[in-house]
Amino acid sequence: MEDPYVPPRSDVKKISRFRQILPQIIATSATIVLYLTMGMIIGFPTILIPALTAKNSQDVLHLTMEQASWCGSVGCIFQPLGSIIAGLALQPLGCKKSMMLLNIPLIACWLIVHFATSNYALYFANGLFGCVMGLTTAPGLRYVIEISEPSLRGILVASTSLFISLGFSFIIFLNSLTDWRQTAAISASIPLLCIIILFQVPETPMWLVSKGRSDAALKSLRWLRGWTDAETVREEFEKIVSFTKNQNQKLLKRQWSGKVAEYKNCPTVEEAELAEPASTSQGLSERVRKMFKDMTRKEMLIPLTKCCIIFAINCFSGVPILRTYMVKIFDDLNLPVDPKKASGPWTCYQRRFKFLLHINIRRNQDVPSHDGVPSIGGSFALLRSCMRRGSIFHSLPTRNRGQASIRHPSSG
Fold first, then answer.
1. At what angle do helices 17-53 and 189-198 cross, to 10 degrees?
2. Quick one: which H or E segment has residue 289?
3. Which of 50, 104, 131, 267 could form a disulfide with 271 if both were Cys (CB 3.0 to 4.6 A apart)?
């Protein structure tokens, strides 16, 4: 991998802080719109089930309570499958291309719901929704992590969680203006907006460097740091190149660690890249074996286990179930409020505390997080995809940098 030459200059132009932040916000807006769609998907069963289980429903479709339970849960069944696929496919495709491709089935799903004439069409659409949500978690968060500066990373990652809540509230607001079919039709325009934004933003510099596209990586970094010149981002670019090479070399040594007699002859990154065409013919079983070996490493198992415990506690707390049947619960309780209007603010309050938690983490030690429908597969996807090229290690705090801590209000 040949690095582009960045000539030294003494007349480096200083750009304003606003100009440095603006392109990162624009790039993050693509992920924000995608997560807004996720929030709308999470909230859609909340408006669909009451509409199709009502006795006075005029729609051609009708759901019994047993069918409604399947309609509300089938997405969660398929979400881990999508997460596993995302972890395997993200590194070859990249975050930007992955997110662009994911919006296509989202548009199709909303249109299937809009024109649905049978319950099976709803089951299929909700199952595909769940699979796409699993696919969405890894590229969305990884994109924000890799394009943002450490000082902005925490609040930008937290904004994705906030927009999941806004998406939930937005679809309930739409349903208060029209029926569920028209709501689905309007929702199909949101993924289209995401595709338009993604055409305007670059791929992450780290992924481009890992693919040997250093010129494109430098151009991307210049765009993300305020449409500046090469000299301004020279130091950061050299760190990314050096970090990527070191992680690739560590990966090679780990792959050669079982060959004791040959370990001293472990190739360099450059030698491995030259030999890469010969290694692409390895069988599927060998690739699966290497993946399983990576998955069972201590560095992978410890954070994955922690995530699984947290998600399990969240799932068994009953919050996801309450969210799905919230409108019907409020209606059955005969509360003196409109059930549709009361459901949205409840979720916003639920997310607000997490957003405040993120922005109180010290700015240079931001930790990526997962949100949305709790799933074991979500953590698997992000960890698996980032582990391959070491991007998650680039974003996580290390001991010599200090540990992330929450500032108590009394400490200022």
1. 160
2. helix 284-295
3. 267
